[in-house]
Design brief:
Layout (H helix, E strand, L loop, with lengths): L1 H13 L1 H21 L14 H12 L9 E7 L9 H15 L4 E5 L13 E8 L8 H16 L3 E5 L12 H17 L2 H29 L3 H31 L4 H28 L7 H32 L15 H10 L6 H11 L1 H16 L7 E2 L11 H13 L7 E6 L6 H13 L4 E4 L3 E2 L5 E8 L6 H21 L2 E5 L1 H35 L3 H26 L4 H4 L7 E2 L2 H29 L4 H28 L7 H33 L8 H6 L8 H9 L5 H8 L2
Parallel strand pairs: 5-11
Antiparallel strand pairs: 1-3, 1-4, 2-3, 6-9, 6-10, 7-9, 8-9
Helix pairs in contact: 1-2, 1-9, 1-10, 2-7, 2-10, 4-5, 6-7, 6-21, 7-8, 7-10, 8-9, 8-10, 8-21, 9-10, 9-17, 9-20, 12-21, 12-22, 13-18, 13-22, 15-16, 17-18, 17-20, 18-20, 18-22, 20-21, 20-22, 21-22
């Protein structure tokens, strides 16, 4: 592989005009496609195989005009102090609002609070339910504006009015912190390279790659039903890996220049060695992201595949556009160790010439770890274990209006409904009874309702509402606890247990659905898929790393280190978003259960990113060991050349991820924080401390591989040994390449 990538790097360097033209043309093509694409339509959240989804599908068949997946809104009214909603003036205001809401073109129905018995017992709070014939993301802006205008008219009449439900669902905003993250990345690159030109190359290529990826997602959003979170995740991952991959190749290029190679040869060598690591690091990220499809949640699959696509683009750009831009930059990109004058380059060169230059920080740190491996290993493992302790109290759920900031009308509507009707009113359960195979459907409907009334923690059970055919009915159940509570989850399971008995006695099927039941089913499905997913992703990546390192223990150590970092990161997420530690600093206004997708999502993404640092750092050690250094010295050499770059890459990735903490979407905020803290634990504790300590303790055993397996595995040559061998034997058909290889 190193030989092929060496040729590719030199070709891109020589044919830089052609390579740059291709990528600019792809960016323009993707941009035109995005500009001309229709607005994204439905992003329906389906969970195949769950009871809640089966109930939704049954409702679509038996209640065709019901629009089970249509947007809903609850307009909540509260009377002024000393008044009631049943007062004539207030009642007239509400009825006028209901009439105004009914005029909407996408409105299916509006329930009058006074006829639907939607007035609290003390008559101070009432609500009107609005149902639309399209989903929240498909709803026209005019419909949202009409909803807000109607609420404002009622406010002007003296009532307190808030609006809840998914009808006000909008595309999340990431805020200015995302730009700050990119700015931090730029500063780190300038410090690392000591040159604005060298620092600008990774940023430029990363932005081009993300531009192509996001534009493509936007162009395909309507056809593939891609939600806004999909593009946000793709941007998050694409920026991070795009900058990092380019950083590693530019850094290796500067190192090759420092060894006296000509620029074209140095570009080829950089792509052949660091580029090989980029390919395998990218493959681990792609495997982890595409592997999310095993969970069988369409939205999660689309998010993973889209993000994986941006990673593939980042790899291809790093292998081709970076050497092309290095050709344009020429002597403006200096050899490693040389900085521009304004960065103190003259002073550094004078120290190096006089022999006063000290070993770099990476060399000193690696030397310390090699001398005290047991102490460093214990300290790192104990520290990560302590950070992981909060994960033992992990509670999972999906965000609802109760997790919104208190400044939003959705959250205020949620609180008003809890005040007037009880906390369980915000999470009603819909029970669907399919009595098509029963002899007396009406009797079944009544019996099911009576059975549910006898279950603990049930506040209200509405009479069954049958369809036109009379063979299917819906029953609304109001719990006495909030939607995300364990009590409500137990209630859902209790109703389903009753349904199993009804099925045995009457052949009728009882299904529980609604947003609360769907959240419970999603959490269960994700929990069930976590171990198989972990086995698949870690297993495939383990095999890939055996190919890269030609070792059994190094990939095993990499996998175990990842488990430490991901558990510690989950512990940090629980501490902030569930326990409320540093919640104000992170902009978390409401603590609660951790998003159900977070554990499996972090396993996938963090594993891929963790393997990036493993590949980039340990391949340098492997390269030194293959070239004859002792195991302990190889560790120091690997840190000498790789620690500074890996540190810069980790800081950049943390800055990019942390930039998304400013998002208005709680899911994006939690993902940004979780990935940023996971990169910190993995890069600075696991890869910088635990990994060298373990390698120092293992010695030569770290690079052991059974002879039969060594013969069976193909030689991918990440270290560039093939380039050295070909240079020594002189076997080459390209005269230009002969001259370049002769200098290796």
């Amino acid at each position: 592989m190193a030989t092929f990538l060496y040729k590719l790097g030199r070709l891109a360097f020589r044919r830089r005009h052609f390579v740059a033209l291709i990528w600019v043309a792809l960016l323009a093509l993707a941009g035109v496609g995005a500009a001309g694409a229709p607005t994204a339509g439905s992003t329906s959240f389906s969970i195949p195989g769950t009871e809640a989804q089966k109930a939704f599908d049954l409702l679509e068949q038996r209640f065709p005009g019901m629009s089970a997946d249509g947007a809903t809104a609850r307009v909540v009214f509260k009377a002024p102090d000393g008044q009631k909603m049943t007062d004539a003036a207030n009642k007239a205001t509400v009825e006028e609002t209901v009439k105004e809401l009914s005029d909407g073109s996408e409105v299916v129905s509006v329930a009058d609070p006074y006829t639907a018995k939607a007035v609290s017992r003390d008559s101070t709070i009432a609500y009107a339910s609005v149902r639309y014939d399209v989903s929240g993301m498909e709803l026209k802006d005019s419909s949202r504006e009409a909803l807000q205008d109607a609420a404002q008219d009622a406010r002007d009449a003296g009532l307190t009015v808030e609006v809840g439900g998914d009808a006000l669902q909008t595309t999340p905003e990431t805020g200015t912190t995302e730009i700050i993250g990119i700015a931090v990345a730029a500063v780190v690159l300038v410090i690392t390279f000591g040159s604005l030109i060298a620092a600008g190359l990774p940023l430029l290529t990363a932005l081009i790659g993300v531009g192509i990826g996001i534009s493509t997602i936007t162009a395909l959003a309507d056809a593939l039903e891609l939600g806004s979170t999909t593009s946000t995740l793709a941007m998050m991952i694409g920026l991070a890996v795009g900058i990092d991959y380019a950083l590693f190749i530019v850094s290796r290029y500067r190192a090759e220049l420092a060894e006296g190679r000509e620029r074209e040869d140095a570009a080829g060598r950089a792509v052949g060695t660091a580029g090989s690591a980029v390919v395998f690091a990218g493959l681990t990220v792609v495997i982890a992201l595409v592997g999310l499809s095993v969970v069988n949640i369409p939205m999660l699959t689309k998010m993973g595949v889209a993000a994986a696509g941006t990673v593939v683009i980042a790899v291809l750009i790093a292998l081709t556009m970076i050497p092309a831009l290095l050709g344009y930059a020429g002597r403006k990109v200096r050899p490693a160790g040389k900085k521009s004058r304004w960065m103190g380059g003259d002073r550094a060169e004078k120290k190096a010439a006089s022999g006063q230059a000290k070993p770099n920080m990476g060399t000193r740190w690696a030397g310390f770890v090699v001398r005290r491996p047991i102490a460093v290993l214990l300290l790192g493992v104990i520290g990560l274990g302590a950070a992981a302790v909060p994960a033992t109290s992990l509670e999972l759920g999906l965000p609802d209006d109760g997790s919104q900031p208190t400044s939003t009308t959705q959250r205020r509507a949620y609180d008003l409904l809890s005040e007037g009707f009880g906390p369980g009113f915000n999470g009603p359960l819909m029970v669907v009874v399919d009595a098509k195979d029963s002899d007396d459907p009406n009797a079944v409907f009544k019996d099911v309702g009576d059975d549910i009334k006898g279950i603990e923690n049930v506040v209200t059970v509405t009479p069954a509402t049958p369809n036109k055919a009379g063979d299917t009915a819906t029953i609304t159940v109001i719990p006495d606890a909030k939607p995300s509570s364990v009590t409500t989850e137990d209630l859902v399971h209790a109703i389903r247990d009753k349904g199993a008995q009804v099925k045995a006695d009457t052949d009728a099927t009882v299904l529980v659905t609604g947003s609360t039941a769907m959240n419970i089913d999603v959490s269960q499905k994700l929990n069930d898929a976590l171990l198989p997913y972990l086995a698949l992703v870690v297993g495939l990546a383990f095999l890939l790393l055996i190919l890269v390192f030609r070792s059994i223990l190094v990939p095993l150590k990499a996998a175990l280190g990842f488990l430490l970092s991901v558990m510690a990161a989950l512990g940090a997420v629980v501490a902030v978003f569930q326990w409320g530690w540093l919640a104000g600093l992170m902009g978390v206004e409401e603590t609660g259960p951790v998003m159900s997708m977070m554990p499996i999502f972090m396993v996938g993404v963090v594993f891929g990113l963790a393997m990036d640092y493993e590949v980039f750092l340990v391949t340098r050690m492997r390269e030194a060991y293959v070239h004859g250094e002792k195991p302990s010295q190889a560790v120091v050499t690997g840190f000498k050349h790789g620690a500074r770059v890996v540190t810069a890459a980790a800081v950049i990735m943390m800055a990019v991820f942390a930039g998304f903490i400013g998002s208005s979407e709680s899911m994006v905020k939690m993902i940004g924080f979780g990935l940023a803290i996971a990169v910190f634990f993995d890069a600075f504790v696991v890869r910088m401390a635990v990994v060298p300590a373990v390698l120092a303790l293992l010695g030569k055993r770290a690079w052991w591989l059974p002879k039969w397996l060594d013969r069976a595995l193909p030689n991918v040559d990440v270290e560039g040994e093939g380039l050295r061998a070909r240079a020594e034997t002189g076997k080459n058909t390209d005269p230009d390449e002969d001259r370049a290889l002769a200098r290796v």
